[in-house]
Write a structure and sequence with these properties.
It is a single chain. The protein has 222 residues and is α/β, with parallel strands linked by helices. It has one domain: 3-Layer(aba) Sandwich (Rossmann fold). It contains seven helices and twelve strands. It has a six-stranded parallel β-sheet with strand order 1-12-7-4-2-3, with helices on both faces. The chain has a four-stranded mixed β-sheet with strand order 8-5-6-9. A hairpin with a 4-residue loop joins strand 5 and strand 6. The radius of gyration is 26 Å and the shape is elongated.
Length: 222
């Protein structure tokens, strides 16, 4: 049965409700939070004596990341030839052509497909766009990874970067991404801040439920 109750004004309850809805769409509410400052930087400034590089390393390692500094690309190749078998990272999964060329150049074995046995770790190695000092984050694009699976499925994510890719803030990084990549029709970017973590139903911290269990950055100071 339809609600036909009559109010004191001789209007049904339904009509009153509809009138309020109409008025709400016509009347402009007073702007909330109109005095918020959207321009001032909210992050703590980077200490001048530390600089962006040291700040990134500190932030990245504080969230469980592994950081390796290398002076040259040749040193990177030697390091990977030693660390890959020692840490069970073989075979490396690499899909990006320029990274594949660098691995070939230095005699580092890789696969183009995620092949592994049940007891092996699935390890991806990739380039990146930026390293963000303020948050210890890594920005990847689909130009670096070619596939979302290459950073969501592996147990270990290895990221190779150069010193000039370290940038102070996320704001600066996004500006740089827009200037450098939109012209190349890059469709997707992802920001990774440490190995994945979440809370279970009892609010206990659980690490690496999805995504990489380990993230390592190899910084080449060319």
């Amino acid at each position: 049965m339809k609600d036909r109750r009559i109010s004191d004004k001789g209007v049904t309850i339904k009509e009153q409700i509809l009138a309020k809805v109409r008025n709400a769409t016509i009347e402009k509410p007073e702007a909330m939070f109109k005095d918020i400052d959207l321009q001032t930087e909210t992050w703590n400034p980077i200490k001048e004596e530390d600089g962006t590089a040291i700040t990134f390393v500190q932030k990245f390692k504080s969230m469980g990341g592994i950081f390796v500094y290398l002076e040259t690309e040749a040193e990177f190749g030697e390091c990977m030839r030693q660390l890959a078998p020692q840490n069970g990272w073989e075979p490396l999964w690499c899909v990006e052509p320029t990274m594949q060329e660098m691995l070939k150049k230095h005699g580092v074995q890789y696969n183009e497909h995620p092949d592994k046995s049940e007891r092996q770790k699935l390890t991806t190695i990739t380039n990146c766009q930026y390293l963000i000092a303020q948050t210890g984050s890594i920005i990847l694009s689909d130009g670096d990874t070619l596939s979302r699976k290459s950073y969501t499925e592996p147990d270990v994510l290895l990221v190779v970067a150069r010193t000039e890719q370290i940038i102070g803030s996320l704001k600066e990084a996004l500006k740089g991404v827009k200037e450098r990549e939109f012209s190349n029709q890059t469709s997707q970017f992802v920001i990774i801040t440490g190995p994945t973590k979440t809370y279970d139903i009892e609010q206990n911290m659980v690490s690496s439920v999805h995504g990489p269990r380990q993230i390592a950055v190899f910084l080449i100071d060319d």
